[in-house]
């Protein structure tokens, strides 16, 4: 089946590429690239862009390149390079040996600028940055020619060579493409293609003191690598004419083609790299891996799986414009991935002590409880039961309201996997009136798994044996921001914008002892994001940053159902 027939009902990018390949747009194989700048960490929007490039390449049996846009030594760091490579591989989009660096093409890009100067298509300009902006004009007014626009080829070549050799101060001169100062597209009004930066580069050291702008370097790098499609987010659409101009003026045969797709945003989170940096550097979050952030590092620490993120990007498909997707779709993908994989444990987040008065003082029973009610293959585990247990504080109401089917005074409830208990007495703090302890009785004949078919109760609650409980800290999350729709250009007072309840830490949570066994190899649990379902509370994982052998710390990944009302 040919490409056109096979993909005629597919998303718009696949349809567009399929049509172009059908008429023989390229003699070489399909190739795309993801070009991150190593000045920060990847986020969920990055994952969508990576997915788009990678999956389309796979669809047409092509090659996916990871190429670092590392032509600004003032912002970039090897730390980010390593993190980006690790995160991309973790996501499942491994580029294999196809990892490249824009800085490795420095000589080629420099020679391309020399070629344009020789053709009279580029010149050295002495205007200051603010003057260049002033001369550029506006959306309604054309720009003005630089007074240095008509320098001779020989003078431009000499000046550019002196720039390269470190003869001028930083940012004192630039090289500009000579296109059209009257163009309705501001990107074509003699854009800057080279600037002077005296700073050590993490890869090339001090070999260079001039660096190309992205819009100039990008098409040249694509051409060098044999990329066929430069798939960019929608904000680069107005830059496409410049991309094409560079390739045309350099005489590149079968030039790569830039095509755009929509930019992804999520409700309740911020994906602007500038805003993320402000949140991190301002101390509003616990680093780039804070579980409230949409960075891949944050999602990993929170407990999201690669499969859940891939499912999320697949369900979105290709979007044409700037789109905001409800975060519940990402959470849904996580629940679908974990539903049949995780062991369901009992964890009491707000403990209330119960003494079962008619249970033998020193007796301990090992009850068999299923690990996952949706997947019998995960088997069962032993859970200790004893005279004193803990239940959730909100699973008891002394005077039950209508529809309350858990434990109350003089009423019965089933303990999950164990017995019926009946509350006989409520003990309170005489000073505050707070309930401190319940005295209950149990019915030995109602043990789960014995075939008991007598009276019924409407409610089942979870519990943990007091003498066997493992204490831990638990982090609960809500959305990070109090409001949506931050403009990239507006000032940000994060103290007023960050939700004060976005992180709630619960101390001395009680968990059944199996969790200690499951997390005995803490380093492994951290590296593999050990996930559990806490019965009735949601999905949780070991906090890879804060958990220790002496104190387990868990992050709630998502509740069992979506509770973030972002409308």
UniProtKB/TrEMBL annotation:
Domain Glutamyl/glutaminyl-tRNA synthetase class Ib anti-codon binding: 346-443
Domain Glutamyl/glutaminyl-tRNA synthetase class Ib catalytic per the UniProt entry, residue ranges: 31-330
Domain of life: Bacteria
Protein name: Glutamine--tRNA ligase
Gene3D superfamilies linked: Glutamyl-trna Synthetase, Domain 2, Glutamyl-tRNA Synthetase, Domain 3, HUPs, Ribosomal Protein L25, Chain P
Main EC class the enzyme belongs to: ligase
UniProt keyword terms in alphabetical order: Aminoacyl-tRNA synthetase, ATP-binding, Cytoplasm, Ligase, Nucleotide-binding, Protein biosynthesis
One Pfam short name: tRNA-synt_1c_C
Domain tRNA synthetases class I (E and Q) anti-codon binding, chain residue ranges per copy: 460-543
GO molecular function: ligase activity
Similarity annotation: Belongs to the class-I aminoacyl-tRNA synthetase family.
E.C. designation(s): 6.1.1.18
